[in-house]
Amino acid sequence: MRRRWFLAAVPLAVLAVGVSTxxxxxSRVGDxxxxxxxxxxxxxxxxxxxxxxxxxxxxxDQGKIVAARNGQLVLRERDGTFQTVTVAPxxxxxxxxxxxxxxxxxxxxxxxxxxxxxxxxxxxxARGFVGP
Length: 132
Fold this sequence. Notes:
Elements: H1 9-20, H2 30-38, E1 44-51, E2 54-69, E3 72-77, E4 82-95, E5 98-99, E6 110-116, E7 121-127
Parallel strand pairs: 4-7
Antiparallel strand pairs: 1-2, 2-3, 2-6, 3-4, 4-5, 6-7
């Protein structure tokens, strides 16, 4: 089954503009390059954005949920690294493409968490079986 990942618009849009315009001497990669970078094989990413003179450090973690409790997700990333991510109480959570809640996140689900620096994650995208 092909997995589809949905990323928050800001870091992806910034990366797409930077890559397509050749910022920093990078060659034009296009959509295929972005899919390779941010597709299902990605373990984690860091995107630095300068907005109105302020530097924002977006961190994106992706993997299988090992545990989800007490407002924290433990992810096993593709390279075998375990990452504990605190989830903000106000986080936007999607489960199987629909609005969801932290309580719906289960071990073995595929998940993506986005945060700024070491702050709690504000975006969670998860896919997989939502059982009792």
